[in-house]
Amino acid sequence: MFLETLKKIFDTFGAQIFVPVIIFIVALGLRVNLKKAFFSALYAGIGLQGFTLLLNAFIPVIMPVVQRMVKSTGVKLPVFDIGWQATAVVAYSTKVGMIFLGLGILLQILLFVLRWTNVFQPGDLWNNYSYMVWGSMIYLTTKSMALAIACMIVLNLYSLLFSEMIAKRWSTYFNYPNCTIVQLHHVGTVPFGIAMNWILNKMGASRINLSPSDLQKKLGFLGEPISLGLILGIFLGIMGNLKRLGSLSSWGEIATVGISTAAIMAIFPKVSGIFAQAFLPLTEAAKKKGKEGGKSREWFLGVNDAAGYGEAATLISGITLIPIMVLMALILPGNKVLPLVDLIALPFMVQGLVAIMNGNIFKVLVSGTIWFSLGLYMATYTAPIFTQVATEVGVTIPSGVLMITSFGILTKPIAGLIFLAFLSKSWLLIGLVIAVYLVSYVLFKKKKEAIYTYMENANSIAA
């Protein structure tokens, strides 16, 4: 079957293969000479593979500490976080998910070619599973294939709009020319982040300078990214070993987590520098072609979210939110979700907020706590449906667990509200969701440059 073959190709060749191929083709299309096009593609592949190697080395070191920290609370909630990886397996195992696998690619290419969006989303095809899991839950509950596909298409339209809204800010902040994140489970923070940044600025939060550069000025050598990484890693290591601090092995683990976090802070910028080199010839060629043709088109390539994981403010904010979100899960009335496996993904999940707030860690922590707390309620509500979908495709529920979810994927308030509108089968609510999108799209396209300018200047505006 064609779709199964397509899935096997995605499983075999990751982003580190797909993105270079796309860049090579685009570069040749922009009349970049063969040598520069080849090295642009190669730098992209090397950078993405470098990110993968770093994360594959770092996450196994820090994950046991995070899991032990959660277990040490002694609290057992009925909904267990199985992680985004298992959620992706569920999404790719359903019939409706496999249909969208092919349909989504065609839709994303068509929207870009027709200039409905200036974001080329197929640069990160794997993360289409985020639409597929919501659509699978719609199909399970309503038995309507049309409704499920319509829901996934609308989710895709919203995520592309949010991706384009944040594209320039993300590209500027993370220093990747003409790149942006496109993942539904990350870009949903964009409208919330813009609103929260405005509110926090009005409340005077902009005076609390907690960006990596500000910390470096205030703390001297202790404010250096690698020093902060060491301190943060040691803190997390201690939190995960509170009940066994008397053993030598625990201090070995604490030291290892500290050095590993410092290593990410030191090595990640070097890898990101290699990755950024891939896009310079494309940017130059696009500008040159725009001048020759009269009217230029600024477009952005969707890249894997690993590209921003180890940036200083992103990693600090994400890791600091780990114990905060464990605490919120324990104290929020009505919450039934125990975040666990996806806690380590928090640096992926805060990238939108970090870019919008220009690396102000204080504002990111405040906004992130509110956003992910709202998400816990969404995951609590959808857990029974997701558990049923996962069970039907053969996922084994951990012993002693009543229901499962993904803290990284199913805690998204905006995506969840769109899902609930389609789940209701109410044409009024579905029509309202579509109307809100169309109005938002028209307003954004009309005021795009003003919005980009505001987002670039928002963090320098005095409260």
Describe the protein's architecture and organization.
It is a single chain. This protein is mainly α and 463 residues long. The protein has one domain. It has 20 helices and six strands. It has a three-stranded parallel beta sheet. A three-stranded parallel beta sheet has the order 2-4-3. Helix 6 packs parallel to helix 18 and helix 7 packs parallel to helix 19. It comes from Parageobacillus toebii. Its main location: membrane. InterPro entries: EIIC-GAT, PTS_EIIC_2, PTS_sugar-sp_permease. Its EC number is 2.7.1.69.
Strand order, biggest sheet? 5-1-6
- Kindly name the structural category: mainly alpha
Mean pLDDT score:
86
Helix content: 55-70%
Low-pLDDT regions = none
**Largest sheet properties:** 3 strands, parallel
> How many strands?
6
Number of domains: 1
What coarse outline follows from CA principal-axis ratios?
globular
The ordered H/E elements are HHHEHHEHHEHHHHHHEHEHHHEHHH
Q: What Rg, in angstroms, do the CA atoms define? A: 22 Å
Number of helices: 20
Estimate the strand proportion: under 5%
User: How far from one another are the termini?
Assistant: 58 Å
